[in-house]
Each structure stands twice: as structure tokens, then as C-alpha cells.
Amino acid sequence: MLRKIFGSSKKQPVDIDIDKEKLPRHIAVIMDGNGRWAKGQGLLRTAGHAAGVKTLKRILISADDMGIEALTVYAFSTENWKRPKAEVDFLLSLFSEYLAKELAEMHERGAQVKFIGDRTGFSEKLQQEMARAESLTENNTGIRFTIAANYGGRDEILRAAKLLAKDTNADIDSLTEADFEKYLDTFGAPPVDLVIRTSGEMRLSNFLLWQAAYAEFWYTNTPWPDFNEREFIEAIKEFAARNRRFGGV
Ligand code: FPP
Predict the structure, then answer these.
(1) pLDDT tens for each residue of the chain, 249 residues long
(2) Is the CATH code 3.40.350.10 the one for domain 2-8+25-239?
(3) Residue 120: CB partners within 8 Å, gap ≥ 6?
(4) What is the residue with the minimal CA distance to atom 24 of ligand 1?
(5) To 10 degrees, the CA torsion angle through 119, 167, 26, 152?
């Protein structure tokens, strides 16, 4: 039975009545609908992103308490630079603020914080904050929490191909998929089992194209700021009931 303990800064194992081996190891979330949510409340789009950060905090705690191994969230895509400058600047300042406010608690929980995406697009200061979060938490053994920032699946695969081309030790003819994964930003993470998208869209939008090859997709009409632990558990329960065949019969 689910206990009402979400929100503690210490990991509080929670039992959601699903066999451990049926839990998704890696959940990826497309946190969509912040702008529409804000508009519906008569607020600026930026208020939607600020509300989205609160949801993110709750879902990370929930995933950690359930024993999910990895959670990856799409915070800023390579295409999001096309948004008005004020919104882009706000999102970038939210990343800094989030790290300043939440890093200590994530570390206390034993989370490993990672960033994927082309971080060279960000200011030196933000890049340093990202590197600090990663190095502080790299030896932690808890949930692997990855923030995709200036991330695009095609961009990641292209960058990986460039790294491979420059790797003089690579044996191209005998290269396997597992070898190629070493050049991806997500190296070391389990394959994505479940992709959750909020706010009614049913697209992958260039998210984790390689890693989600066999992921189950789950969506809800709820905009990200209104998404909660109950719906998160619903997605996981539905995942656990699905029959995954990975191309077999
Ligand atoms: C999509 O909603 C959401 C984003 C592009 C940004 C997501 C960012 C956050 C939830 C907060 C920042 C994250 C961290 C890690 C601090 P949208 O703006 O496209 O919504 P719309 O489709 O309704 O316009």
C-alpha cells in the first residue's frame, strides 16, 4: 500500500504493489504543457516553468522512493532556443536556481545528478554549476537523475559519431551497438523502459532516440505543473501490465 510520505528529504522506500522486477528501470519524462497551464491560469509562460520545477521535485522524490534506478527529464531541447529570449533566459536561470536550491538535498538522498546535451551552448558559469553538481554526486549510488539540457537525440547521435570518428583506438569493422553507446551522453544508464509525456501530445520530439528504441510510451492530458505522484504511479502500473516482446513473439 502506498504510504503518504512523499516530500521527505531522506529516501523513504515505498511499496506500490508491483513486483520489483516489473518496475521500469529507467523512466524518461517529457515535461510538456507548462505554457498552456500558465495561460489557463492567466499567468505568463514563465510562471508555468516555475510551477513545473515544483512538480519535478515531487516526481524525482517519488521515483527515488519507489526504487526507480534512473529518471531522465527533458528540460531544454536543441530547438527551444527558438523561443522568445526572455523565456530562454528564464529557463536558463531556473537551472542555476534549481541547482543552488536542490543540489544539497539530492546529494543527501544519494542521487547521482547528470546532464546530457550539448552544454557548450550554455554560459561558462552554468557549465561550471553543472560540472559541480555532477562531480559532487558522481560516487552516489542512488537514483541516476539526468537533466537533458540543450539536448536533441539526433544531435547526441551526431556528436557520438564525431567522437567515434576521432577515436583512433576504435575498431570500426567490429564495432557493436554496445561499443557505440560509449560515445553517447547517457553512457552507463540503463535503456529507457518507459517514456511519459504530459499535456496530451504523443510525440517523441527528438528525445532519447537511441535509448528509447524499445521504450513503452504513456501519455496523459494533464499539463506538467498539475502532474502528480498518483498519475506517475498509474503510468508505472500500466507499464508493469504491458507485454514487452522486443521484436520477438
Ligand atoms: C515544455 O512545456 C517544457 C519545457 C520546454 C521546459 C521544461 C522545464 C521545466 C519543467 C523547468 C526547468 C527544469 C529544471 C531541471 C530546473 P511548454 O513550455 O512547451 O508548454 P506548452 O507546450 O504548453 O507551450
Answers:
(1) 333 444 556 777 777 788 889 999 999 999 999 999 999 999 999 999 999 999 999 999 999 999 999 999 999 999 999 999 999 999 999 999 999 999 999 999 999 999 999 999 999 999 999 999 999 999 999 999 999 999 999 999 999 999 999 999 999 999 999 999 999 999 999 999 999 999 999 999 999 999 999 999 999 999 999 999 999 999 999 999 998 878 887
(2) no
(3) 127
(4) 35
(5) 40
Which residues on neighbouring strands pair with residue 30, listed in sequence order? 74, 197
The catalytically annotated residue of 17, 32, 150, 226 is 32
Cα separation, 213 vs 42, whole angstroms: 38
pTM: 0.94
What are the extents of the domains in the chain? 2-8+25-239
Q: Ligand 1 within 6 A of 225 CB?
A: no
Q: List the catalytic residue out of 17, 19, 64, 80.
A: 80
- 207 Cβ inside 6 Å of ligand 1: no
Centre of ligand 1 from the C-alpha of residue 21, in Å: 31
Residues 6+ apart with CB under 8 A from 218: 194, 195, 196, 197, 235, 238, 239
In the residue annotation, 193 being an active-site residue is answered as no
Catalytic residue at 243? no
